[in-house]
Write a structure and sequence with these properties.
Layout (H helix, E strand, L loop, with lengths): L9 H6 L4 E2 L2 H27 L1 H8 L5 H17 L1 H15 L1 H20 L4 H4 L2 H17 L2 H12 L5 H29 L2 H8 L1 H5 L1 H13 L5 H9 L9 H11 L1 H22 L2 H8 L4 H29 L1 H25 L2 H19 L2 H4 L9 H17 L2 H12 L4 H19 L14 E2 L2 H15 L7 H9 L1
Parallel strand pairs: 1-2
Helix pairs in contact: 2-6, 2-9, 2-10, 2-13, 3-4, 4-8, 4-22, 4-23, 5-6, 5-8, 5-15, 5-22, 6-8, 6-9, 6-13, 9-10, 9-22, 10-18, 16-20, 16-22, 16-24, 17-18, 18-19, 18-20, 19-20, 19-24
């Protein structure tokens, strides 16, 4: 068994631009802060989805039930329409001035706008101004979210060691699910604790008002972080500071020089988000409006499914480090194509057990996406434009296909009278997503493009540098299998 090259000193490891040693404490701190901040962002966003029926009564009292719901989901979709603007603004900015500063800004905007929704007077108090203010603050929410996911996933991916990137990155979506669970749980508790009239009169505001203090906590956590090693190395490698570059130059580099990964990112995220929002945002409304469940029972079932997903998500991320990202993504898309219709048929039976089994089937398949995408998407782009490329591609897809999913499904169901438009929509998305997976490269256990290898120990760094030395000297480098054997020893 080959051992690390001990002729390489600790100072050489620390100063070498050819390898980055990331201690576990730094990774853990970055993951926790990003995950918690992400959870707070999606708590804010999820509250609106889970209170959609109540919000319709507050801001559109003169409309019919279906019209109220369509109006509410239209405003839900409006936030997604401006998300690409947030991606175009925050993404290149994050590649210029750093990931940390932009992520601090996005959480301030999200918390502030969500809190503001909680204090808007009702339609009965100020008339048409009420829904106008609702639209305005939802647009601010969408704009801030346009810089959130791309920055958060970039931050975690650039902090994680190459061989464990899938495991650490999966905690980002753990935060997303935690935000949704917290939102759904709080809405369920409030709905059960107060009368229907009280919910419409004042109780719906409580989750929105909580966004203020939660946002301050998230801001504190993010300001304590250091910039990612990959971004710092990128700055040092450039002749001039990245902050001195123009946003236009970064934008051209993203859209023109890296159009292929951008297109693949859009396709993958579109297919994933149709499944994601179809289950986590549209399903509670489907259960209550179509199947006749009261909102509390529907949310309880969704909470159970999401809790199971939270327990399992890190195992999926860890598995992707071992078997690769592509096999898991392909399994997920094939599963959605084959099982979406059976799952919805089970849900349509109406018994609690069959509803739960159908939701669990869809949740288990979605788990393969949420556990793997946070490590797949950042790896599509080089370090210099990673934040911008991911923010633009992700938010274009989410805007067109994600946030509109509840609206599209509600409208199609109303137009066709069929309860099965949702699984058909998911099946089409699954085919397109599977084709995109076949076109991307496998990135498990490999360095991010434009960054040196990231390792967890000094011994592993010595081995990487020793392999580079032998390669430069014309010797045969050690194989990855030998390196793994050394790690195991």
């Amino acid at each position: 068994m080959n051992a690390p090259d001990h002729s390489i000193t600790a100072d050489e490891v620390a100063q070498s631009p050819d390898v980055t040693v990331i201690d576990e404490a730094s990774v853990s701190r970055a993951v926790k802060a990003t995950m918690l901040g992400n959870a707070m962002e999606w708590f804010d966003f999820g509250v609106y989805a889970y209170l959609a029926t109540t919000i319709g009564q507050v801001f559109f009292p003169e409309a019919s039930g279906t019209a109220q719901l369509l109006s509410t989901f239209a405003i839900f979709a409006a936030a997604f329409i401006v998300r690409p603007l947030g991606g175009f603004f925050f993404g290149p900015l994050g590649d210029r001035i750093g990931r940390k500063k932009v992520l601090a800004t996005t959480i301030i905007l999200m918390a502030g706008s969500t809190f503001a929704i909680g204090v808007i007077p009702s339609y009965e108090s100020i008339g048409i101004l009420a829904p106008i203010l609702l639209v305005l603050f939802r647009l601010v929410q969408g704009f801030s979210t346009g810089g959130e996911y791309g920055g958060a996933s970039t931050f975690v991916a650039e902090y994680a060691p190459d061989k464990r990137r899938g495991f650490f990155a999966s905690f980002l979506e753990f935060g997303t699910l935690a935000g949704y669970v917290a939102a759904a749980g709080l809405v369920t508790v409030i709905s059960s604790a107060v009368s229907a009239d009280a919910l419409v009169d004042w109780a719906w505001r409580i989750p929105f008002l909580l966004a203020g203090p939660l946002g301050l906590i998230g801001l504190y956590l993010r300001l304590r972080l250091e910039e990612t090693p990959a971004f710092q190395q990128q700055q040092q490698a450039e002749e001039r500071s990245l902050a001195e570059e123009s946003t236009g130059r970064k934008l051209r580099e993203t859209l023109v020089d890296n159009w292929r990964p951008l297109v693949l990112c859009v396709i993958l995220v579109a297919a994933y988000n149709i499944a994601h929002y179809g289950l986590l945002s549209y399903m509670p409304t489907y259960l209550s409006n179509t199947l006749g469940y009261d909102e509390s029972h529907g949310l309880v079932l969704m909470i159970i499914v999401m809790l199971i997903m939270m327990v399992c998500i890190s195992f999926v991320g860890k598995l992707s480090d071992r078997v690769g990202r592509k096999p898991l993504l392909l399994t997920g898309f094939v599963g959605f194509f084959a099982l979406s219709l059976p799952a919805y048929l089970l849900i349509g039976v109406g018994h609690y057990f069959t509803v739960f089994v159908g939701l669990a089937m869809l949740g288990g398949l979605l788990l393969l996406f949420v556990g793997v995408f946070p490590s797949v998407l950042p790896a599509l782009f080089p370090t210099g434009i990673r934040y911008g490329g991911l923010a633009i591609g992700y938010n274009l897809a989410v805007s067109i296909f994600g946030g509109t999913t509840p609206l599209v499904l509600t409208a199609l169901q109303d137009a066709t009278g069929s309860d099965l438009v949702a699984p058909m929509y998911m099946m089409v998305a699954a085919v397109i997503g599977a084709i995109a997976v076949l076109l991307i490269s496998e990135t498990a256990r490999k360095p991010l493009e434009g960054s040196p290898p990231a390792v967890a120990t000094e011994a592993e760094a010595r081995r990487v540098l020793g392999r580079l030395r032998r390669t430069k000297a014309g010797e045969s480098p050690r194989s990855e299998h030998e390196a793994d054997a050394v790690d195991a020893g």
